[in-house]
Specification:
This protein is mostly beta strands and 157 residues long. Bound molecules: FE2/S2 (inorganic) cluster.
Length: 157
């Protein structure tokens, strides 16, 4: 005789699935990489230039950020940069550290919820200003100043 799964068992099974295989990218056949619940594309490297006070992203060379609701990582280990850039709404972007303040795992942008979620199974959730929405993380993500100048994002780091 089979027994119905309790709510606790279902949550546990879901956590195991999240920790093993995630199907959130299946069915997405877009040629432009998109951020999902557990994956965010890297920005096109040719779109980024570095200067003394920060970096500039040429949006004409960054299709990964073209759509409202898209997001991309900007990583430069030599400069100790680990960023996520989110195209929040028309002409509005935000830039934050992409490393969860709980255990340093990478976060992704969840466009459906308009929030950032840690890829770790604990799934801390952050608002776009960096504040913690759900732990276990206790500390906000660091956010960075960003200004749109014509077709470029100028980011202070
Ligand atoms: S590292 Fe993000 S929730 Fe633990």
């Amino acid at each position: 005789m089979q027994h119905a799964m309790t709510r606790r068992e279902m949550i546990g099974a879901g956590a195991l699935l999240v920790g093993s295989v995630c199907g959130c990218r299946t069915g997405d056949d877009s040629s432009v990489p998109r951020s999902t619940c557990c994956s965010t594309p890297d920005i096109e490297p040719e779109s980024v230039t570095y200067g003394p006070g920060g970096l500039t992203i040429d949006l004409l060379k960054a299709p990964s950020l073209r759509e409202i609701g898209s997001a991309a990582y900007v990583v430069n280990e030599a400069r100790s940069l680990q960023l996520i850039v989110v195209h929040v709404e028309k002409d509005a972007y935000c830039v934050l550290s992409r490393l969860c303040t709980h255990g340093g795992q990478v976060i992704s942008y969840q466009r459906e919820r308009g929030m950032l979620q840690c890829n770790n199974f604990n799934h801390s959730i952050f608002l776009l200003d960096g504040r913690v929405r759900k732990g276990p993380a206790q500390t906000p993500l660091k956010s960075y100043g960003v200004v749109l100048v014509e077709d470029a994002l100028v980011i202070s780091v």
